[in-house]
Design goal:
This is 2-succinyl-6-hydroxy-2, 4-cyclohexadiene-1-carboxylate synthase. 37% of the residues lie in helices and 16% in strands. The chain has ten helices and eight strands. An eight-stranded mixed sheet has the order 1-2-4-3-5-6-7-8, sandwiched between helices.
């Protein structure tokens, strides 16, 4: 297996006990901007093919801007965390399981107590944005606020079509080789994500009705040129969470932290400042 080689900063690892949805796990994580001392924590939740290494320097830059510490980690199946066994298929509610089971277990294992969790911000991208929304809905008193970047609230045709095209690229171009820099078991990471999104049963996936319990400050961000989702995603969030604030970015695709980092950082910093 190949290990990620894109960053010189070594990751740490923590062991999680079995949960309702997963067996024992080894989770890759890294603290960023530790110079912020006892400042609130921003937890970064990566996209469907992301990992600690794939975030690169953006969490550090954002945390410096916000004056926060940062926690980045690789979800099970990604990066250097416990890989998905190749005969295991993610269930339709896999993102709910991540929010309900894995995040609280990770916080317990890292000794992040309830006082720290109430000061915490979640920053999630794509699938990680969906998990951010679900955690905020499940634990409405356990966060200072949340930022969902290009989140998925329901399965759209554009999402499924783009994911099908990505599968073709993975199997016919050098995409697999490129992704192998970021994952110890690249096939585990890719097919875990790709198979569930292309599962016909996933077309019925919809978490809009679960968002009504979100009470924390919430910012939802979407690029106008996102080929994995339309503005209907964050507009739906606004319909379910009346206090949610929306930012719609021009000249921006599915990854605002790479496509429009200055505009994204400005939007997040302004949003957090208003809450403080």
């Amino acid at each position: 297996m190949q290990n990620p080689t894109t960053t010189a900063v070594a990751s740490d690892f923590v062991e999680l006990a079995a949960t309702a949805s997963h067996g024992p796990l080894r989770i890759e994580y890294r603290w960023v901007n530790e110079a912020a001392g006892t400042a609130p924590i921003a937890v970064f939740l990566h996209e469907g093919l992301g990992s600690v290494a794939m975030w690169r320097d953006w969490p550090q830059a954002l945390c410096e801007r916000l004056g926060m510490r940062g926690l980045v980690y690789s979800r099970p199946g990604y990066g250097l965390s416990t890989p998905r066994e190749h005969d295991v298929k993610w269930p339709v509610d896999f993102m709910t399981a991540q929010a309900r089971d894995i995040l609280p277990a990770l916080f317990d294992a890292l000794d992040i107590g309830m006082h720290e969790r109430k000061r915490m911000w979640l920053v999630g991208h794509s699938d990680g944005g969906s998990i951010t929304l679900l955690y905020a809905a499940l634990y409405p008193d356990a966060l200072a606020g949340a930022v969902a970047i290009a989140p998925h609230v329901f399965a759209e045709d554009i999402s499924v079509e783009s994911i099908a095209q990505t599968k073709q690229l993975y199997e016919t171009t050098d995409l697999r080789s490129k992704l192998s820099r970021y994952h110890a078991d690249v096939d585990s990471a890719f097919y875990g994500w790709n198979d569930i999104w292309l599962n016909p049963a996933f077309r019925e996936w919809n978490i809009a009705g679960e968002l009504d319990t979100i009470r924390q400050p919430l910012l939802a961000v979407q690029g106008h040129d996102d080929n994995y989702g339309t503005m209907a995603q964050i507009d739906t969030i606004s319909e379910r969470v009346a206090h949610a604030q929306l930012v719609k970015l021009d000249a921006c695709g599915h990854s605002p932290h790479r496509d429009a980092p200055d505009a994204l950082n400005e939007a997040i910093a302004a949003f957090v400042a208003r809450q403080r």
